[in-house]
Amino acid sequence: MFNARKLTPYFMALSIFKVELFFSIAALSGYVYLGSESSAIYIILMTGIGVINIGLSLLTLLVTRKIKIIDIVFLIGFPIFVLASLILGRISSTSAISLQQSQFNSFLAFSLPSLFIGYYIAKKDIDLFIPIIIVMISITAGSIVSILVPFISGAAFSIMGGASYQAASYYTAFAYGLNLYVLIYSSNHTESRAFSSVSIKIFQVIFLILQVIMVIIPGGRGAFVLMIVYSFIAFSKLITLRNAVKLILGLLIFFLLAY
């Protein structure tokens, strides 16, 4: 039976990744978004989801018995400050108006809803494990369709549902980071029991290998660096001080014997 109350927290959490999910789902469905000139679907979806996010967060604020001053400052004062900054910028300068408007539009569509989503998740104490899994699998599946499959067939990467090669690399690197997080920190989540089996772990490792390949294929250098950073953080978390000492001693012995 459909239960909107139970699904709302997942919707709010997934909304943080609405851009990545849009292009991943577009790639899976075969749709290519060519910009606002050809279709308004992207703008409508991003704006609509953002409005719903803000509305649900404000509703949560209103039903809260004890409203703190910091809540009002955080959710209302900060957006007003940004709006005032835009107005003052328009008054004091007539240059780069289109750039100012573009930045403000991005703030309204992405940054502002994320502000409210963060508040909502903190107030509801939502476990983000399931949304993380959904986002990771969706991006990986979209990358397989638009990056790996064309590469295997001998074609060069062209587009991922409308996203450029740089965006496609970044999305896949992000999925790689989420996958590493699930592998290392799944025990910290109450909803992770289904992902504790050995077969699931093997499947995730296979995903990691594919994700590394799909980050490299499009040629996004920044995404490659991001993937290296994720790997370094994961390695530093996995290795204990005792294991680090053993590793260093092992390397020293190896080089001494080799010398």
Estimated radius of gyration: 22 Å
Anisotropy-based shape: globular
The SSE string, one letter per element, is HHHHHHHHHH
Q: Please report which band the strand proportion falls in: under 5%, 5-15%, 15-25%, 25-35%, 35-45% or over 45%.
A: under 5%
Number of helices: 10
User: Helical proportion?
Assistant: over 70%
Question: In terms of per-residue confidence, which ranges show pLDDT below 50 for 5 or more consecutive residues?
Answer: none
Class from helix and strand fractions:
mainly alpha
Mean pLDDT: 82
Can you count the beta strands?
0
The end-to-end span amounts to: 69 Å
Largest sheet: none
How many separate domains?
Answer: 2
Structure in words:
The protein is mostly helical and 259 residues long. It folds into two domains: 1-126, no CATH class; 127-259. The chain is built from ten helices and no strands. It has helices at 4-15, 18-29, 41-63, 69-92, 97-124, 129-152, 165-185, 198-216, 221-238, 241-258. Helix 4 packs antiparallel against helix 5 (97-124), helix 6 packs across helix 8 and helix 7 (165-185) packs antiparallel against helix 8 (198-216). It starts with a helix and ends with a helix. The model has no long low-confidence stretch (mean pLDDT 82).
